[in-house]
Amino acid sequence: MKNIREIALEEHHDFVGAKMGMWLFLLTELILFTGLFILYAMYRVRHAAEFHAAATELDVVIGTINTLVLLTSSLTVAVGIEALKRRNRKLAKWMVLLTVLFALTFLVNKYFEWSAKIHHGIFPGADELLSRSQGEIIYFNLYYAMTGLHGLHVLVGMGILLWVYFLIARKPSEKVVVAPPNIEYLKGAQLIASKGEQERWVIDEIKDDVVEVEVVIKKDPKKAGVDIPNIIKLENAGLYWHLVDIIWIFLFPLFYLIT
Amino acid sequence: MSHHSHEEIHGIGYGILVLVWLGLVVLTGVTVVASGVHVPALAVVIALLIAATKSSLVVSYFMHLKYESRIFHVILLMGIVTIAIFIGLTFFDVLFR
Amino acid sequence: MASHAIDVQNAQENYLEVKGRWSGILSWIFSTDHKRIGILYLVSIAFFFIVAATIGIFMRLEQLTMGPTLMKPEVYNRLFTLHGVIMIFLFIIPGIPAILGNFFLPIQIGAKDVAFPRLNLLSWWLFMIGATLAILTLFLPGGLPDTGWTFYAPYSIRTGSEVSLAVFAAFILGFSSILTGLNFVTTVHRMRAPGMSFFRMPLFVWALYATAWIQILATPMVGITLLLIIVERLLNIGIFDPTQGGDPILYQHLFWIYSHPAVYIMILPGFGVISEIIPTFSRRTIFGYKLIAFSSLSIAIFGSLVWAHHMFVSGQSDLANIIFSFLTFFVAIPTAIKVFNWVATLYKGSIRFEPPLLFALSSIFLFSIGGFTGLMQATLPINVHIHDTYFVVGHFHYTMFGGTIWALIAGILYWFPKITGKMYNKKWIYVAWAFMFIGFNTLYGTMLYMGWKGMPRRYYDHLPEFHTDHVIATVGSWFLYTGILILVSTLIYAVYRGTKADANPWGGTTLEWKTSSPPPLENFEKEPVVEHEPYYHEEAIR
Amino acid sequence: MGASNFTNSVDNIFLFILAVSVALLVGITITMIYFIIRYNHKRNPRATDIPGNVTLEVVWTVIPLLIVMGFFYYGYIDYKQMRDFPDDAMQIKVTGRMWSWLYTYPNGLQTDTLYLPVGKPVTVNLESMDVIHSFYIPAFRLKMDAVPGVPTKMWFTVEKPGSYQVLCAEYCGDRHSYMLSKIVGMPQAEFDKWYASASAEIEAQQAGTEEAGAAPAGPSPEKGARLVKLKGCVACHSLDGSRLVGPSFKGLFGKTETVIVNGKEEQITADEDYIRQSILEPSAAIVKGYPPAMPPQRNIVTDDDIEHIIAYLKTLK
Ligand code: HEA
Ligand code: HEA
Ligand code: CUA
Ligand SMILES: [Cu+2]
Fold first, then answer.
1. Which of its termini does chain A have fewer beta carbons within 10 Å around, N or C?
2. Predicted ipTM?
3. Which of residues 164-193 of A touch B (CB under 8 A)?
4. Contact C182/A33, CB-based, under 8 Å?
5. Under a CB-based contact definition with an 8 Å cutoff, are residues A176 and A182 in contact?
6. Residue C106 maps to which CATH number?
7. C5 part of a folded domain
8. Which residue segment(s) compose the domain that D152 sits in?
């Protein structure tokens, strides 16, 4: 049996810390795209007219549909997180699954969009493309680079959401530990242990001479339980997914709506 | 530390989330319609403003930033300022070459 | 899952003795203990450093004579690229944060570990994977890249060497660096011991904190830039390619947006080390604590405003040149504040002159030369003349090698007893210092001189008028190499045969000196409570 | 007087900054050493804690600020001149390519050494045909990148007659360090004489090809010899049999060699057609053992030029 210090090190649940880590990571993703946005901005001011001309060739309808799909997927994942926080595991599962389905829809749409373009000989390095004006070449190269990288992020986000889905769908583990690393903190601390629905345990009977505590909570597997660490995993997955959405919010007008 | 377990429980209501989503959908409609404006410079500004509004909605509600502590706001601010610097200073080259 | 299997009874054991789930080498490469990861980095980084330094020696040998002798131009070009790539991406950027930062940041703030120990291990693995990929290019048909560490387009798009893989390796290394930064920021925010307010943090932690922000905010930029090089090469997405309407100058912007702030990723932790050493050996508190702390942040901020000073003759707009030249000068101010405060800290101290102090002060001296030459380069008309000459090569060796690496060595000497529990032979360190100091200035001082005379960099061969200078520089490199070899052998000898060091051999005041040498697995027997500012020397007159 | 109109001013700024820097460096170093000795623990057993001093901090923030602003100001003044292009300057086009410089005068005259009159402003318009190069004349304290797709320029006045080294300062591949050339400054009268005679030759040649298509002078090995230097062939092809980036021209004509066509090896004899193809479409057949590094020369050499070059290659036994 592991002792409390081991658990503390292994499953050190600093939720705020984990979320902070995720936000910092999102910053790096933002900057990654900033590189491309810089290029877009610079080439756009130089080739404004050609960008406009090229943009007419994109299908605004598909673009709008995809925007709506992503927005809705953001909603579903947000609702899913909310549901899990309220220990409504069933709703959470459905919502995450729905989000994954939306992501898939987005990718399928993108696939059709890209293949239509490629079919018309508009893809990087194609003779048809290279015969156009410089601004148009750049526009389409950027289009492929930016939506491509974004698509990659959709794919990754989908994978993460699926993974979290399976974590949630799994039977909650026997043992739920929310013990902070230090015994001191346990004294008088509030501890949520989700035995069944939304139950709270308050531990305050730890005496001063206690140096070690083992927190093992047996759960009734028949009731819907939630592994608390999964909440933060879903929250972080959600944060990532929203970022993917935000990037699209900018890509959409910059590529589709500048006609 | 376990105090935050509080906050894990009290999230925001489903209703607000749906409202925000509705707002986003409406704004998407607006930006599509507004793209018909035939003043190029203005069109870009409008499109970017709407996109910024939309993303701030996503950030505040869907991403919960409104309910997070100050340090999270600082983190986001750092990112935005950095992006502004990177894009802004590059313009000094391209616009004046 | 992590490899911590701790037996409470034996918590007193130091981190080197702890028996975990794994044993032997596995107990290192799968350890999530920040101290073991620090040592992992130390060993791997030192290995790459020796490889790249040896390449440097070979480059000098080629320059010893005029005309083709030792190697062909295509070999030389690959060597300086490899030298630069290893030195930058595998050595100096991870250098101090990954080795000393990993080891001491948690201890100095009284934490048990970093915020994300497993992520920390992942960073090291990414580092190794990146390094392996970079080396792998040697065995592919195109061979090592031959572009210089800057990978300028369009040359990097056209050359037949294995740029794609090398660039991908750098991309992965970038992620390793980002994850370290992310870990440190979260650690500083979330893991400080009771009483450790921001203004009680040691300055080394402040420096790492500022560095971590640059790592997070700037590194993705080089990530995307290098990705674009890959897609240009493999998928023909011509974004910088002039034949497709691309603008090669924009590549340089993106590259330097990262790579200039990166030079502060390199130097800030070095400044942090110096800020630790000087008060310890002066036995007094540091002069201007807050200013030094904030100057780290302001270097980080100003440092992100000046990137295009690498592009004064690239063809960017004149206005951009003027603005970036102007902004560049501001970086000198926070640096000046640091230097003056360090010097002031010596004032009325009770100075113990020991090897770490010697190296720290030499680092200030050498870095100042690097900094002043930096100001010359920032002056527009001078830059027009000396851009891409050996003057620049001299400048960056003075800053990176003279500043950062001398500070790294100072830090290693300072914390060596804490890390290993052993003390080295100080006499030999002084001998090594003499060789290094003389060699260093002969080698790089001469480079400054010939650069001013007009010797371009990345030249396989040189014109007769530069021959004497090259010979002198090469001889200097032998002294330098000798010095470093003495230093390293002294330290390696001390690891095995050194005398036992006690917990606080230098009289330091920060938390790492309040635990045993080497520290126990969780750094402290009992979580420390902080009551003073970091450099509180009890015996000092107040 | 300096070699160019900028030589002296740049040197002066440099010396000024150098002097200030050395003074500061020496000052700081001496202070450090003095403190180390004066406050050694043997002399000063107990340290005095001084956590800071606002006045001092302000002083050493403001003074360095003033100093560096001074540096910027002097630099700015001089740089403005460098970028203030005179209207009456002579316009020269400088083309960089792997790995040689080509100079084109206003009347179309092309040379591989840049002859210039002393005392007359010259604007150099740079362009590159492949990767980035950088046109560097150390004696003039000037350089500027030649960027493919982006026109760049610089200007100067040669002030002293003489021959000045031109280097390439942006890494551009294997023979970057051999991308050398010269600028020769000569008094105006001498320059005019040279310009007239060199141009006359060009005009004669152009006139010749235009009007008398029926009676060409015939391929001339001498012209060919000049062309391979002017057009930059010798940057990659040696004339003495040694291996540079490409195969040597020596003994090339009539040789039987293995080339790779569409990935398959073939034996060919280097006849006129093959050489023509090699120049205009190098990628069609790559000589075994060499990289596909030769750029197509379609815009560089004319069909006539090629005939001269072939004639010259025939003489290289
Ligand atoms: C550790 C790395 C490091 C550091 C810290 C610096 C610091 C600085 N660098 Fe350097 N630099 C590099 C690494 C670094 N550099 C590298 C690697 C390159 C070349 C890359 C390549 O092309 O391959 C380069 C190139 C480079 C260039 C481009 C040169 C060219 O290619 O044309 C310029 C131009 O402005 C420059 C300027 C500066 C300045 C102004 C500082 C300032 O931060 C310096 C500030 C310090 C001081 C001023 C000295 C200390 C202060 C005092 C002693 C107080 C008194 C001072 C005053 C009163 C002024 N650097
Ligand atoms: C930190 C960075 C660093 C360091 C330390 C060095 C070290 C050396 N450099 Fe460096 N150099 C660069 C970074 C560095 N270089 C970069 C970025 C470039 C630009 C590349 C480009 O153009 O793309 C460059 C370019 C460059 C050139 C210019 C090439 C050209 O333009 O043609 C030359 C020329 O001689 C040179 C020489 C040397 C030599 C002789 C050494 C050393 O060999 C000096 C001797 C040092 C040692 C022998 C150290 C031995 C170390 C150990 C034994 C391990 C100790 C370990 C611990 C203490 C942990 N370097
Ligand atoms: Cu051309 Cu270097
Ligand atoms: Cu820089």
1. N
2. 0.90
3. 178, 180, 185, 189-192
4. no
5. no
6. 1.20.210.10
7. no
8. 90-207
